[in-house]
Amino acid sequence: xxxxxxINLKQTNSINQVRYGCAIGSIYSxxxxxxxxxxxxxxxxCADKQYMALAFYNGFxxxxxxxxxxxxxxxAGENEVVFGGEDRLRELIKSSLKIMDADLFVVLTGCxxxxxxxxxxxxxxxxxxxxxxxxxxxTGGFKGNNFVGHELVTKAIIDQYVGDYEGAKxxxxxxxxSLLPYQNTFWRGDLTEIKRVLEGAGLKVNILFGPESKGVNxxxxxxxxQFNLVLSPWLGLETAKHLENKYGQxxxxxxxxxxxxxxxxxxxxxxxxxxxxxxxxCEEFIKNEEKNYYYYLEHFSxxxxxxxxxxxxxxxxxxxxAYNLALNKFLVNQLGLIPANQIITENPPxxxxxxxxxxxxxxxxxxxxxxxxxxxxxxxxxxxxxxxxGHKPPIIFGxxxxxxxxxxxxxxIVEVGFPASYEVVLSRSYIGYRGALNLLEKIYxxxxxxxx
Amino acid sequence: MESVATEAENEIGIPVIxxxxxxxxxxxxxxxFDATQHGILRKIVRKNPKKQEDLINxxxxxxxDVFTPILGExxxxxxxxxxxxxxxxxxxxxxATATVGFCYTLSSYMAAALEQEFGVTEIKAPQPYGFxxxxxxxxxxxRVTHKEELAEAYIQKEHERIEPKLKELREKLKGIKGxxxxxxxxxxxxxxxLRELGVEVNGSLVFHHDPVxxxxxxxxxxxxxxxxxxxDVPSFSVSNRQQYQFYGLLKxxxxxxxxxxxxxxxxxxxRLGIPAAPLGDEHLAIGYDGMINLGEAVLDVxxxxxxxxxxxxHVKLPYTEWWLNQEDPYILAKQPEILNEKTx
Lengths: 452, 344
Hints:
The structure holds 2 protein chains of 2 kinds. By secondary structure, chain A is an alpha/beta fold. Chain A has 3 domains: 23-162, Rossmann fold (3-Layer(aba) Sandwich), CATH 3.40.50; 170-282, Rossmann fold (3-Layer(aba) Sandwich), CATH 3.40.50.1980; 303-449, Rossmann fold. Chain A has helices at 27-31, 46-56, 78-83, 86-99, 111-116, 120-129, 146-162, 187-200, 216-220, 237-247, 261-275, 280-306, 321-335, 350-361, 377-385, 403-408, 432-449; strands spanning 36-41, 104-109, 134-138, 170-177, 204-206, 225-231, 251-254, 314-319, 338-344, 372-373, 395-398, 412-415. In chain A, α8 (187-200) crosses α17 and α11 runs antiparallel to α12 (280-306). Among the domains of chain B are: 1-43, no CATH class; 172-324, Nitrogenase molybdenum iron protein domain (Rossmann fold). Helices cover 47% and strands 11% of the residues of chain B. Chain B has helices at residues 2-12, 30-43, 67-72, 87-91, 104-118, 130-145, 148-172, 184-196, 222-230, 243-253, 266-271, 287-302, 305-312, 321-324, 331-334, and strands at 55-59, 77-81, 98-101, 121-122, 177-182, 200-206, 236-238, 257-260, 276-278. Chain B has a 5-stranded parallel β-sheet with strand order 7-6-5-8-9, sandwiched between helices. A 4-stranded parallel β-sheet of chain B has the order 2-1-3-4, with helices on both faces. At the A-B interface, α2, α3 and α4 of A face α14 of B.
């Protein structure tokens, strides 16, 4: 008898082919702030698992100064389960302060400490009282994925380290809350490009994460910003609302991260209008950028119009809502490709799903599409295999998990998000003016190499 | 868990095996090997085995199968487990004549249990590394399977084949210092191979230390075998992949390269200008060919020095001045009162 023939298979809440880390994956939200060092209060393998998933087999991004095997960990054992982990945590914080050199320590507590009820706040409080730059966030894995952990961490740093502020705001200074570091594999190049274009448009930018950030000191400047920019479908909205309450800062929500000249130009206009700063610098910048962009696009159009060995027409995007939406907008409007199936995989909170789905209904005047929210690898594979990609092989924007499905569908695949185990990513971006050109190179090199 | 698994097994009709492997269960992930092996032994291994006299269980992780050609010379077949084995391969574990592996830390639970429950002989001999270890290992397998003549012929043939190649490598590796940083038994094996190659090994880090393995048999004391046959190892340290301790250990020994098999240490060595050979294929260094393979792997990474020496000049290590100047990586364990000194 064939296996599972008579079984009534139904969707449970367990998934295979994981699309994100757990809340303590926010170790990488910390380590992506220059000068910040995570201290992890969890079991012996947790930090390593998050490292291998988010920072190694996902673009091989690396742990840098304070990630990877550098991050101190309590390695909680049976002793900490039975008797509690506070003593061990106190010991670890003391030794970390002695051995590790950082501007800010962020204590992240995982499942064990949260379930047994460690009073991490009081342990960390002992050090905070002595003026040690240290904060804590309760990021038990069961609270959610690393998207959830990320905003728990940002809130902790804002409330416990940045603190209160009654001073003046600086016009034209903006805090950017956008991609999820490490999870979005190209976040370093992407945030670099976002900062570049905003500065080009005349703004001053607290990019907060990544190589372009001035690090922990930049976070101290958060309250001085004129406004917050939430540049993503939903991640960062909680933070922005909190900052509105705490510092009286308004926020601008732009759900679509801009890829390509059309979208990036529109984006810069939106931000500059909201900021109310002088438009001239922005217009000059846009003019230059578009000149450069369309120089390349014009040359590229020979290929796009005349390549006669066949190029994909229909596509699917499988990934987190930020990259998914951004790519869809670009592929539809700038390239004129046809959306076949869109699958959002990071389990966005229920309250945001309608708004996200609406964006897909209005990709272009004449292009509207549905979106599925799915996380399980089997289900996603089924959805793709049941998709009508027309008479040509499709192109799939997805992750390493989609490779086998892409092969079955005889289509091309471009890995754009977690896990991207067949990409080595350093400073590459797929966003903005410059990133779009990289993206075009990647898409079409992949498409034409299929038969090589 | 047990009852849920049993219910599911009855419903689905295939083995459903619960493995108790809570992260906080022990300080070292090798406990997980024991957990998986225990589950396999309980639920998959055939309870009424039919002996296969020429079958040898080889317990591995994911290395290439170097055992089939070697044991083939003795007229033996290999049952290669656990990764990518079929359920049938696992079931027949109890039907084999003997069990071997590349590392006692990994395989000793399974091997000891198979002997205890099913009479499958666990080969109690030095691990198959270097001339001394490989000779002894082959001879013990031959004794258990009555293939002594074939073994002696093979051993002699291999010694003759390898010796000239080894001589060449020894020339090229003269004056080179290596450092092994891997799991316990595996490190003991690798050091013997490096010493066969004439590489100086003045230090090693192992993640933990097992004074005995699950059989309790002193013939499996891989550390003793190393020291008795290949001399002592100064600066032999036990540290469970603690990168901050590795810093002090490398400062003290200053090797030209390190051997690793797990992540977490090589990035630090890199920042100190020292290249690493990561042995993803764990069987690379096994047996007679292993000495040649490892020698060539080392020569390849020595060239990497250019990359790491350049990086060293441009990176900052994440440690305080105090730690950078510490001689003893274990000082906090020895003098915990240091932690109560003023922090700022």
